[in-house]
Amino acid sequence: MEPLLMRVPEAAQYLSLSRAKVYELIKSGVLPSVRIDGARRLRPADLRAYVESLREVA
Fold first, then answer.
1. DSSP-based three-state secondary structure for 7
2. Cα distance between residue 44 and residue 9, in whole Å
3. Phi, psi dihedral angles at 40 (to 5 degrees)
4. Is residue 1 part of a domain?
5. pLDDT per position as a tens digit, 2-53
6. Who's near 1: CB < 8 A, 6+ residues apart?
7. Are 13 and 6 a contacting pair, CB within 8 Å?
8. What is the CATH number of the domain that holds 50?
9. Where is 6: in which H helix or E strand?
10. Complete DSSP assignment for 18-49
């Protein structure tokens, strides 16, 4: 079963990117995220949408 939310390190591993790059994408608004009690979380569906958008740009 896929988790509903991922931590940044998990998302970085999922995307094969560094944590710093994931934070950069979040800060720029490319990757949507939520904060829960100070913890940053990302939805796997948003990560997949980001990857799909790369195909459209390339």
1. strand
2. 13
3. -85, 130
4. no
5. 899 999 999 999 999 999 999 999 999 999 999 999 999 999 999 999 999 9
6. none
7. no
8. 1.10.1660.10
9. strand 6-7
10. -HHHHHHHHHHTSS--EEETTEEEE-HHHHHH
In this model, does residue 57 exceed pLDDT 70?
no
The DSSP call for residue 16 is T
Q: Considering its fold, how many domains does the chain have in total? A: 1
pLDDT (0 to 100) of residue 55: 80
Report how far residue 27's alpha carbon sits from residue 32's, in angstroms, rounded to the nearest whole number.
9
What is the pLDDT at residue 2? 84
Does residue 10 lie in a domain region? yes
The per-residue pLDDT for 48 is 95
